[in-house]
Fold this protein.
Amino acid sequence: MDTIRRILADNLARVESRLAEACRRAGRSREDVTLVGVTKSVPASVAAELFALGVRALGEGRPQELWRKAALLPADVRWHLVGHLQRNKIDRTLPLAHRIHSIDSVRLLDALEATPGEEKINVFLEVNCSGEANKQGFGPEEVRQFGDHLRTLSRVRVCGLMTMAAVTEDPEACRPTFRHLRELRDALRLTVGDAHPLNELSMGMSGDFEVAVEEGATCVRIGTILFTGLPP
Ligand SMILES: *Cc1c(COP(=O)(O)O)cnc(C)c1O
């Protein structure tokens, strides 16, 4: 386990220094960006090591895997669901998830709103900014017209918008996508008023997180580069 911890610590230090540098370039504070360690590709034991190294927020792509890891890790992990939530998995996921990043349909939004309970359900609306047909999420035009509907929600709290940029070799190519998401968020905030905070942006992954931070990301979702070099 010692080796694993050392490799993770090295990887994390590199990510932290790149994050700090991106924040500095953007004139932002490092505290304004949450690093979500996306642990979907590693076992619970490795996720636990990452948490022990100080990464308080961990992300999973599939609800069942989030449930499984949540049962094995300390209770103070802040779990983020970054992948699709099926409606029949809502009940088991809600008590565990600090944020759901992947609200991709009105049906899902309304199903969450209809769940019993007092506590707010903190979500991001996933937006398909890059227009790829194989991607989940609302179209930008849909989001623009969403204000009226969002104002009717009380159980669900929309923290912000989330997107995945198209996979590319050149992170700069993602900048227009991230900028677009920020502009959409700003526009939506104007129509929604005080009904939802809409002060967060979940964007940026291993290949493009620095550009995302420069464009205002408050949450970067990083997997691959935290786990490179681990023994198989
Ligand atoms: C897997 C995943 C990530 C992490 O991606 P990496 O490229 O491994 O950093 C981030 N967001 C979502 C939605 C994912 O599914």
